Amino acid sequence: MVAEEVHFLMVTAAMQGHMNPMLKLAKRLVSKGIYITLATNDVARHRMLNSKVSSIADDLTTAQNATPKPPGITLAFFSDGLSPEFDRDEDVDRFIKSMRTIGARNLSNLITDLIAQDRKFSCVILNPFFPWVADIAAENGIPCATLWIQACSIYSVYYHFLKHPNLFPSLDDPDKSVELPGLPALQVKDLPSFILPTSPPIFYETLLDLVQKLDNKVKWVLVNSFTELEEDVVKSMASLHPIYPIGPLVSPFLLGEEEMMSKSTIDNVDMWRAENSCIAWLDKKPPSSVIYISFGSITVLSQKQMDNLATGLKNSNKPFLWVIKPKPENSETKGGELPGSFLEETKEKGLVVTWCEQEKVLMHKAVGCFITHCGWNSTLESVVAGVPVIAYPGWTDQPTVAKFLVDVLKIGVRVKIEDGFASSEEVERCIMEITGGPEAEGVKKRALELKEAAKKVGAEGGSSDQIIDQFINEITGKPF
Predict the structure, then answer these.
(1) Coiled coil: which residue ranges (predicted)?
(2) 470 and 430 share a domain?
């Protein structure tokens, strides 16, 4: 344990997929004796206090209060310059631009205030999509790290593209291939969408800013992955800008561990109320029988996608639990709705909920496979739970992760997508293949092997645990 008080500042976005990895890393650092201040844009406070859906909502410790004793997590909020009602998922361009101007000023003022209150920070850990935080850290003389919240493989693709673009073919042809160190051959259609010509420029600008700051302002790149999962790409990056795999950042119970902090402290952020009745529903189902479907906290399916997925599920005649999150009240996104007769026709087989505690669902013995958009948090949770996947990727890192899951790890199947959606026949084919096809047993076996590997890395003395120790030692200059 650290012998004296050491404080880290962590900065992230008030988005579920960004907050939760930071919170889980914060908890691991606290278990090592580090005091954490977690700063985020204040829409998080608005959502949590208004919805009352998160454990944080009942237990806020704000930065205006005294530092927690013993080490713990303190929340701090700053304005991003946008109203609480503004849909940050829908207009990401405006959100990022507002954060790097108005948000940056407000965060800088917050840090100044905290330092004036004798909060001396030894390190700032920033969200990689907020690279401007490194400038504020440098102005205050604080060493800086980033928590890469996607796969090592994705980080490697971005790094090489931004540093060595000549390695890549024309990105206008989806069937062209690129070979990068430590990665399988990737076709353009497998690459993360942020580097493609069709992607909004804001993403390219943000990633370029981050990679440029690796040369002088961001010393450590912590990655939410583990060496045994992505060994080849971790080794390939060692001579470029070393990465520190400190994952999987999931809840301790998913790894078979005891909670590292009391139940009254921050654990997970859910921006919607979870329908816990689904656990009782799963309790009544046979082992490995249920198809679990969720497309994460951001993705909105079109009507065609919804229709085909619903028909494929119905025709498979398998039990299913489907999460269809509510759309924001003021959202202009035209998401699809379930076919009118679907719920009545499948009431004996399926359950549709607006949200659930995904880690608990994936751990349930009744769940046999996971139809997923291949977001990295969901991917790690399925890996740690030992659940095979049906990969149905959309944008950003998801096509690359789908390739990784199916062709490298071989723990799932991938739907064939044409014109943005998979046919109902394709959905049904994948369900039948993953649940009873000739490769189903092998897929399940490999998924369970990865589950065991994941349990070992975060335990005391495991590879990720050792890397976290190394990171703290490099900042404090003291072994512990």
Answers:
(1) none
(2) no
